[in-house]
């Protein structure tokens, strides 16, 4: 009887994992990529995330959503990858290719795409503490409360980091705009 229950439990655990991979895999891979800026490494991180998820599904306390829980694991695994010596000494030439929004004219589409690409590049240059709140808030549409849970930081700390990140981006983008105008 116990063996049958264990078999049923593992099937439901496996089907839950498959569902989580289907629902959140792509989103989590994007988050990992925004941290590490390397496609292959982001894929490795996501494999680690879902292996960890599988091993800890039984201990998930449901104090948050699966999405928040998986996002937290992804952030931690991404930070771990950034700390590793091999990554710190690896120069990545990968760039994020922004999706160009549909525009009325080819010219406006090109300008919009360039501006978006420049913004993304500036976000990726931010220190990790500022970059992660920008990514989670603007690119993943998480609330300050959810980010606080994921990063295990006080909500006011999240708000302060968002403010500082916005200020740094504003300054960098204004400098870039002034450089364009002077040419």
Mind telling me the C-alpha Rg?
Answer: 20 Å
Element order, helices and strands? HHHHHHHH
> What is the count of β-strands?
0
The major pleated sheet works out as: none
Instruction: Name the overall outline.
Output: globular
Helix content: over 70%
Q: What is the CATH C level class of the largest domain, in words?
A: Mainly Alpha
Look up the CATH topology of the largest domain: Rna Polymerase Sigma Factor, Chain: A
Beta-strand percent range: under 5%
Mean pLDDT: 78
Per CATH, the architecture of the largest domain is Orthogonal Bundle
Give the number of helices.
8
How many independent structural domains? 2
- List unreliable stretches of 5+ residues: 1-9, 87-103
Domain RNA polymerase sigma factor 70 region 4 type: 118-169
Family: Belongs to the sigma-70 factor family. ECF subfamily.
Keywords: Sigma factor, Transcription, Transcription regulation
Pfam families: Sigma70_r2, Sigma70_r4_2
Could you walk me through the main structural features you see in this protein, from its secondary elements to its overall organization?
The structure is a single chain. The chain folds into 2 domains: 87 residues, RNA polymerase sigma factor, region 2, helix turn helix motif (Rna Polymerase Sigma Factor, Chain: A), CATH 1.10.1740; 77 residues, Winged helix-like DNA-binding domain superfamily/Winged helix DNA-binding domain (Arc Repressor Mutant, subunit A, Orthogonal Bundle). 23% of the residues are buried. Helix 5 packs across helix 8. The N and C termini lie far apart (78 Å). The N terminus is likely disordered. The chain has 183 residues and is mainly α.
């Amino acid at each position: 009887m116990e063996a049958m229950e264990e078999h049923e439990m593992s099937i439901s655990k496996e089907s839950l994992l498959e569902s989580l991979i289907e629902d959140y895999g792509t989103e989590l891979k994007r988050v990992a990529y925004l941290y590490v800026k390397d496609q292959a490494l982001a894929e490795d991180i996501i494999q680690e995330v879902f292996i960890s998820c599988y091993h800890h599904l039984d201990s998930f306390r449901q104090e948050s959503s699966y999405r928040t829980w998986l996002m937290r694991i992804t952030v931690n695994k991404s930070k771990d990858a950034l700390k590793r010596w091999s990554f710190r000494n690896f120069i990545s030439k990968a760039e994020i290719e922004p999706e160009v929004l549909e525009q009325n004219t080819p010219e406006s589409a090109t300008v919009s795409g360039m501006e978006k690409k420049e913004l993304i590049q500036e976000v990726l240059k931010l220190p990790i503490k500022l970059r992660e709140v920008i990514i989670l808030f603007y690119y993943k549409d998480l609330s300050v409360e959810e980010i606080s849970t994921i990063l295990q930081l006080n909500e006011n700390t999240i708000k302060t980091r968002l403010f500082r990140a916005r200020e740094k981006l504003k300054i960098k983008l204004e400098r870039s705009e002034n450089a364009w105008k002077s040419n």
